[in-house]
Amino acid sequence: MKHLRIMKLPLFFALGLFTASNVWGQDADALLNKLSNQAKSYGSIEATYTSKMVDRASDFESTQSGKIYVDGSKYHLDIGEYIIVSDGITIWTYEPGVNDCYIDDAEVMAEEGLDPAKLFTIWEDDFKTEWKGPSKVKGQSLIQINLYPLSADEKPFHTIQLFIDENALELKRAIVKGRDGTDMTYDVETFNPQAKVAASKFTFKPSDYPGVNLVDNRI
After folding, report:
1. Would the pLDDT of 77 be above 50?
2. 104, CA 20 to 30 Å: which among 1, 114, 162, 212?
């Protein structure tokens, strides 16, 4: 079974202080700083979302729903076919259909794509930003800000489009535009920034999955 990599996860959410440089417009700078300050007040986060993958090269589309819990650098992501768990050091990718679990180093995996723990503060990494202004999403008026990675050649994507509720200071949609022609759209359906999440949610216990086959990619 092919190992699922972070960039291919139907997840965005895709949240330190805002450190992007070469900002294209003070409005983008100000709004993203507000979101970063808001994120400091978050405890554990619980959110549900819908993702849509569009592969233009092969004319393929796929829609999926998921649920994510985030606490600092730790996360638990359930997307049905896969459950991805990280304690901030190790990532366990469990595939219920075949009872396999892949073990990876969290830092290495984050370098290969988007880090789910930064779902709601992705802009705090090294990006140029561009204020695009008002945009309608599902009938709601949102503000669009584009992010462009400073080390563009090192990333599997070239642009991230953020759609923000300026009044509620909440991220509602993110579109990750891949260099390979694959675009991922993530719509936040529900968002609870003060969720009570047990610490056990961020670890994988093989004893809870009898007969699980562990594949350690760290070796």
Report:
1. yes
2. 162
